[in-house]
Amino acid sequence: MAALRQFLPASLMEADGRPEPIFSDVTAEAGITWRQFNGFSPDRYLIETMGGGVGLFDFDDDGRLDIFLLNGGETPRGKSATPIRNALYRNLGNGRFADVAAEAGVSKITNYGMGVAVADFDNDGHEDIFITGFPNCTLYHNNGNGTFTDVTLDAGLQNKGRWSSGAAWFDYDRDGFLDLVVCNYAEFSFEGVAPRCEYLDVRTYCEQRAYKGMPLTLYRNNRNGTFTDVSRTSGLDRFAGRALGVVATDIDADGWQDLFVARDASPNLLLLNKQDGTFLDAGVEAEVAFDSNGNPKAGMGVDAGDVNGDGRPDIVVSNFSFEYPSLFLNRGDFPFEDRTRASQLAGPARFDVGWGVHFLDFDNDGLLDLMLVNGHVIQVIESLQPQVKYKERPLLLRNVGNARFEDVSARAGPAFAKGYLARGLAIGDWDNDGAPDAIFTSIGNRQCCFATMRGRRIPGLASVSRELRAIVMLLGQN
């Protein structure tokens, strides 16, 4: 604790010198009561273990971040007793939020929802909503008057028949209009018999390898409200695998956006933009595709940020239990440096199944810290591996320099002391006090938790939310 006091700024100290909790759970007082429904069923469809997308963005252009919460859906034998819906919570500016999804036209469930990607795709000054899921995607155009219109068909973004997970808006051809990459997870159907697996004579979810992976989809923005599928001409249709998270960033400093794709029991992809409409996978050359034994990890969420202050984007990937989150340092050439163990990420996250992951500078020291939210997928896991929990605690990891992290979760607040089946994570300054806030979702439950920095303004953090909202992931993407 003495070491923690040494690093925390005075604004995060109690009057008697003790560190105060870094975040406070304000879910109830903010008026957020929405619940996620995952269609949990005796058939154990793998899709039931995912979903829970969340986005922070200013949909009504009033200068305050609002919240979009994406629901899952029903399965053939997993029905909800009450109608399920998405939620759009308008920020009232007084610490309270009001659900205006029905009035805004975004409450309807149009698919089994997975992830959220927010961006202004038509350059009209208003941020729009793209939703991934099964068996289609949905694009809501922001009308600029507090309402949205479903323009999926007209835009050509159905991604029909595919189980899509993560997505990222990025201008791959530098024409000034945002294009869209969609991660497709696996071949899937609710028809027929689901793969059957058991642990201790209890029906449970089969591992991801029981599901055949799918290729990525790339849509080029035609600059007229429509998109063209250029997956084949760009070469992205060659990369079949179980993709979950994606982040767009300029890896090689050539001025063109590249892609890092986190994949589940499939090699990660590092797709370099060749500036001619095509991409080259450098994952093997960069040594980010596999672990040190040559095996692909179970990648979930992904984020990019400069953790060591050298001006280059580094990559963090959340993984399955005993695989540890991966931290890849970008040294300006290949291979990247696998900093996972030296960063001390392996210790606190050893037993966790990681989902949402985000860089943030919660203590305003100029170094990017990390937040991860976790939750297992096997209900009987504690009988098989007592050290592993089904519901897992979130982690807050402080960057102490040299890309090394200290676990400060014990001081992060009550929300970090409880276990969840957490999935989606979003970061942004919803109360405009200059400090980053967080919201994460938990499947089959109310979202939890909406956490805010503990009532202290930390100057210099106002720019964090927009930077992080540009990073899109399944889990919460972006």
Summarize model confidence as the mean pLDDT: 90
In helices, the fraction of residues equals: under 10%
Weakly predicted, low-confidence segments: 1-12, 455-478
Strand content: 25-35%
Largest sheet, in brief, is:
4 strands, antiparallel
Oligomer: single chain
Tell the overall outline. globular
Query: Strands of the biggest beta sheet: in what spatial order?
Result: 1-30-29-28
Structural class comes to: mainly beta
The radius of gyration computed from the alpha-carbon positions, rounded to a whole number of angstroms, is 21 Å
Termini distance? Answer: 33 Å
- Total of DSSP H or I helical runs spanning 4+ residues: 8
Q: How many strands?
A: 30
Explain briefly what this protein structure is.
This protein is mainly beta and about 475 residues long. Helix content is about 10%, strand content about 30%. The strands form eight sheets. The chain has a four-stranded antiparallel beta sheet with strand order 1-30-29-28.
